[in-house]
Amino acid sequence: PPATPPATGVTELVGVAKKKAVASALKFKHVALAPSAGLNTSVSTGVSRKRFERRSLLQVEALDTDSFDDTSDYKTHPKTSTYVESMSDTVFETLNMILCFIDSTNWPENLNTGAYITELDPYNCDNLDGDRVKGKVQYRFIVNASGPELGDDDDDDARTEYKVNIWVHLADNEYMPYVDTQLFIEKDDVVIKGAEVFVKKQTFTYATPEGAGMQMKGFVQALCDIGDEDSECASETIQFFEQFKDGENEMSRAFKVHASSSGTKAVFIEPDDENGTSFVGKMVSDSEHMKMTYRGSESCDKLDDRGYLGQRYTVFDESGKRVSLQSYANLVSEDTTYRATMFYPGSVYVDTYTSAGEMDATTKTAALAAFEDGKTVKEIIDYDNPAVTKTLRVRRGVLYKMTSADVPVSTYKDAIVVGWTYADNKYSELQIKYDSSSEVLQIVSKREQTSTLGSNTISAPRPLTMEDLNNEPLFVWGSIFGRGSATLLNLTHYAVADEETVQPGSLASDLTLTCGSECADVSTFSNLQENNSGNDMRYESPTRDDARSTYKEYTFKKDDVTLLEGATEVVYDPSNTNFNWDMYGVFMTLFEASTENLATLNCAATSEKCEHASKLSVHYEWRSSPQHSMAWLEDPNDADSKKFMVAPLQLQGRMPTDASAIPPTPSGANYAGANLDLRYEGGWMAGTPQTCFNPQTGERKTPTYNNDGFIKCSDSSDEVWWRRSDVVIPDGITLQEPSTSKKYVVKVDSAVELLVRAESSACDSLTYATDIELPTESDYEAFTMPTKPDIATLTVKETDKN
């Protein structure tokens, strides 16, 4: 029979939908203490799914998802999962990192296929400090999953249990490089009730191999008490234990949480690293509030006032098929000794780790040299036969063509954006917003930058004037703009730009490009030191106040895709390892100084200064850093046959115009009708509006930007702030790729809930449990890993990396 989509009104799971729902349920979910409310992404506060999907966009006509096949990826996609994020997440930091990796291996899709390799980027699962560089490190795990066929009720299937063993290898973690893991579920513990799948008992156990320097072991177990007459779990229990041993030092974490219709109670313990003791925490909730003691501090949160943020999404094409892009390529050197990954638009990251850890200096040098420009490499299409030989072409910079569109400021209601003015040799930070109540563009803050950033001189928000902007366009940053930047042209419109890489052979002729300020001075690159910043790699002149006669001129070679100043290539210097090129790469705004463009920028005479190039309908940006380069693969026998990585999917559209169709946001901001400028890759959606969240106080605030465009939440290192997406893109939104006009529709896979603080007195009636016993080392059941397969004999199977 045809599959029934798991959407509003579904009463039974069958066919493909059943298989996918079971696969989703078997994956161990993110562990958290606070009770999750869940998220109905199709319907919010009474708005029907059909009505919602029909009016999602003004500029883009919505796709008719009702016309998708019943067995389409869209209609059979599993429902959204959610969890509550709070400060207590530190208790499960290692566990949730490993679970995130395990979830990314796609083991349900490779059930009973034998051992295989999965390749993962730690960027999305192990990036708590925000210092990971996408693509720089690649993990290789060995996976072996067995069990009954998903969603198959065939009694002849003799397999009675799901067992998943994964040999985790954290290649760049010198303290804990290897972890053995096992997920175990009995077939009879998988229960289907209508459109829901429940698992009565699932256990995930993990440990470092015997003989490891740091010894770790742990387990997490989830129990669901559900009877034949129950439509959902009558109660749920999760217990967790984790222990680390390093020589004579030992520390452990544990928690147990029990949830039922009367509320949730939990106890947890974690080490106090400073004092060598332990913190004991407790949590209790009823239907309205949650009280928690964490590291000596007590908080009270509302349970009926949650903000939601999207974590992972899936995008579907015009037929309802899930989108998969090749935005990266796996490469091996000609002799297959070394490996690398090439990402869009051409960042080539050489894997400098082996099964024994990081390479020594000599080996690393040889590995890096194997992937230089002009080297012969092999693109791995099928690991059984990696014989697709290519010539690797690498440029250490990339030119982006920026095409601007004018957007009314009223589109971005109440969203604060940040810009920097420059006058009298001083920078000033401006914070502005379009105030929806007064329907006026306002200036909210002005702070002058001297040795530090001064205090706000705007006592109360007031209408913005062109004098505030020095009577010129203002370059601004704000997460509401998707990739984070736009230009305020005047008091009524922004210019918001789309970017595309300029590939070799795509231009009819070379470009002569002009830089009007902050122009790169290549002669400084080799001498830059650790304490230098982006300002130290630029010419002192021209500045924003200088005449056009002082501007710098560069040549972009169309076939070689290089930017030259005279005969010198304008690219970062990888031999200078003292300077932080990841943070302060080359960035220049450039334009063609045609008569028409000069007139638009009001600088026809060389004695005049030009307005910012982003005022033009087309301008360019040159970027050069380890993250911004251009690379491609050529056929050794035909240089015209080039293969480029596909860009992450650029998507534009608009949020629903009815605020009731959007789940409540963490900041409380109203994004109804807001423009969306997004970048989708491997389930991760970049470009959503951002908010800053303090898990200790519950405070939210808008992030700000420095004059290099780097986002920040606080200047104080003593404060704890997390930067998070501020919105969930609801199911059914239709988006469009600007360059092709192709349409896509979105579903949210996982979302995060953030609670709102309440007065402490609201939790006075709540009493912590005294009868919950924490799991201990004696509750840990050792498991036996199968013999580890020889990785050289295994094939790589696809993951959700892209």
What does the model show?
The chain is mostly beta strands and 802 residues long. The chain folds into four domains: 15-40 and 59-324 and 769-791, no CATH class; 328-383, no CATH class; 402-472 and 479-498, no CATH class; 504-628, no CATH class. Helix content is 5%, strand content 38%. The strands form eight sheets. The protein has a 15-stranded mixed β-sheet that branches. A 14-stranded antiparallel β-sheet has the order 27-26-25-24-28-29-30-23-36-35-31-32-33-34, with no helix packed on it. A seven-stranded antiparallel β-sheet has the order 18-17-16-21-22-37-38, with no helix packed on it. A hairpin with a 4-residue loop joins strand 32 and strand 33. The chain is globular, with a radius of gyration of 28 Å. Residues 1-11 and 42-59 have low confidence and may be disordered.
Write a concise keyword list for the protein shown above.
single chain; 802 residues; mainly beta; 4 domains; 15-stranded mixed beta sheet; 14-stranded antiparallel beta sheet; 48 strands; 5% helix; 38% strand; disordered N terminus
Summarize the structure.
It is built from five helices and 48 strands. It has 802 residues and is mainly beta. The protein has a 15-stranded mixed beta sheet that branches. Strands 27-26-25-24-28-29-30-23-36-35-31-32-33-34 form a 14-stranded antiparallel beta sheet, with no helix packed on it. The chain has a seven-stranded antiparallel beta sheet with strand order 18-17-16-21-22-37-38, with no helix packed on it.
